[in-house]
Amino acid sequence: MLTTEQTDRAIGAVIGSAAGDALGAGYEFRPAVPEPTPIRMAGGGSFGWAPGEWTDDTSMAVPILRTLARGGDPASEEALDGLVAAWADWARTAPDVGIQTRNVLTGLEARVASHARAAARQEHEYKGQSAGNGSLMRTAPLVLGYLTGAVGEELRLAEAARAISDLTHYESDAGDACVLWCVAIRHAVLTGELDVLRGLDLLDLEKRRLWVDRLVTAEHSEPVDFTDSNGWVVSAMQAAYSAVRRSSSLEDALVRAVRTGNDADTVAAIAGGLAGALHGAAALPGEWRELLHGWPSLRADDLVALSEQALATH
Ligand SMILES: [Mg+2]
C-alpha cells in the first residue's frame, strides 16, 4: 500500500513526463534557448502543436499506461502484442512518428510483438545502429506496475522495461537506458531520493562501467552539452539527468530540459518522468496541468485516472 506522498510521486512520473513533452513541443528541432528567454507551453513548432498538446513521446506512453490500467503482466507476450497494435494504429495518422519507430511499425505483416522485434532487428542491421531515444521517452508509466515492494520487483521491472524497449529498439543501449531510468523512477517514487545508478547491477557486467562513466559525465555537464547528439538515447538520458540533478523543482527540471533544444520535447519527457517522481504530481504548475492534452483525446485528469487504475490493479 503506497502512502499519499508515494501515490502523488507515482502519478507525478506520468504527468511530469507528459508535461515535459508538451512544454518542449514548440522547441523541437530548434537551437538551444539560453536564459533569460522564458520557456512557455505555447505549442507551435514544426508540427503546429496546440498549446499544451503532447507529442509522440506521450502518445506512445499512453498505451503502456492503459495496459497497466487494465491489469495483468505488462511484460506478457499478449500485453506486448497489444502495445504493438496500439502503436501501429497511432502511427497511421500521427504527424511526428520518429524515423526508427516508423520504419519498425509500418509494414508489419502482423501487428504482434514477434514481428515488431524482427523488424527492429532488421532496422538495426540495415542502419548499423538503433539506439535512438524513442524507447526511453515513453517508459515512465511502466513503473506504476512495480511499486508494491515485493521481492524481485525491481528485476521484473527491469525485464519489462527492456522487453518493451526491444519492440522497436534493438541496440542494447536503448534497453539499458530504459532499465536504469525505470529503476531510478521507482526508487524516487518509493523514497523521494535521486539515485540513477540504482539499477546498475541489472545491466550486463561488461556494460556497467560504461554507464557509470556516462552518468558521471552527465553530473559534470550542463544539459546543453548534449544538444547536438540528443536524438541518441545516451545523450538524451545524460541531458535529462543533468537537468533533473541541477533542478530545484519539477518546473525547473522541465524548463532546463527544454532549453537544450534539438530533441527538446523528448529530453523534457524523459526528465519529467524522473523529476515528477521526485517532486510529485502536486508540484506541476496548475497552468500547465490545465493546458495538457493529446492523443487520443485525453487530458491531464485522464492520465491521473489511468495512473490510479494502474496503481490499484498492481
Ligand atoms: Mg516528440
- Average pLDDT works out at 97
Distinct bound molecules: magnesium ion
Shape: globular
Residues in helices, as a percent range: 55-70%
The helix tally amounts to: 13
How are helices and strands ordered from N to C? HHHHHHHHHHHHEEH
Structural class by secondary-structure content? mainly alpha
Number of strands: 2
Read across the widest sheet, the strand sequence of neighbours is 1-2
Short description:
The chain is mostly helical. Helix content is 58%, strand content 1%.
Brief descriptors of the model:
two-stranded antiparallel sheet, mainly alpha, 314 residues, binds magnesium ion, 13 helices
List the helices and strands and how they pair.
Elements: H1 4-24, H2 56-69, H3 77-93, H4 99-105, H5 113-127, H6 153-166, H7 172-191, H8 205-219, H9 233-246, H10 250-258, H11 264-279, H12 286-291, E1 293-294, E2 298-299, H13 300-312
Antiparallel strand pairs: 1-2
The protein binds magnesium ion.
Magnesium ion (MG) binds at residues 55-57, 96, 265-266.
Model description:
The protein has 314 residues and is mainly alpha-helical. It is 58% helix and 1% strand. It has 13 helices and 2 strands; from the N terminus they run ααααααααααααββα. The chain has helices at residues 4-24, 56-69, 77-93, 99-105, 113-127, 153-166, 172-191, 205-219, 233-246, 250-258, 264-279, 286-291, 300-312; strands spanning 293-294, 298-299. It has a two-stranded antiparallel ribbon with strand order 1-2. α6 runs antiparallel to α7 (172-191), α9 packs across α11 (264-279) and α10 (250-258) packs antiparallel against α11 (264-279). The longest helix has 21 residues, at 4-24. The radius of gyration is 17 Å and the shape is globular. 55% of the residues are buried. Bound molecules: magnesium ion. Magnesium ion is lined by residues 55-57, 96, 265-266.
